[in-house]
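[Meeting: bench + compute handoff]

Bench side (C.D.) handed over the final construct sequence. Compute side (W.E.) agreed to return the predicted structure before the next meeting so the bench team could plan truncations. Sequence as handed over:
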Amino acid sequence: MTLTSTAAAGTTRQEADTALRASAPRLIKIAAVIVGSSADAEDVVQEVMVAAWRAWDQLRDPQRREAWLTRICVRESVRQGRRRRARFLREESIDDRVSAPADTPGMNWDAAFARLSRQQRAVVVLHFSYGYTLDECAHFMGCRPGSARQHLARALRHLREALHVSE
């Protein structure tokens, strides 16, 4: 490795560190909504940072860096949720999300939202909070556009039922 390539690699790593630190708060918000807990969201974002750091030099289009980080975050959040659910099922534990019987009058938004699957929460957050199209949501979630549409439709149906809202 020459001195020039070493200096260039150092600059790239400094650039990566700066960009990752700037993106962390946004990624934590996305992950927290998907996994349902701020502590788990921090773990997810830490994994996202490690994955992004390792692959930083391989990013083909630096202009799409934020979308790339969002996609890694959504996938890791869903993956973390699957691992967590599997662990709870093995331990015969219950999920620590807010839960209430479905027929409770006046169920609040947070309780209704917490009852959605992680994929459903991901598409609702990406589509309604961040304004991504359903095709972009599907790309971030690593699924087909039809699946993202189905997750959104089911999420909205469950939220309407939980909140007793008629269409």
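W.E. noted at the follow-up: Confidence is low (pLDDT under 50) at residues 1-9, 88-103. C.D. will use this when planning the next construct.
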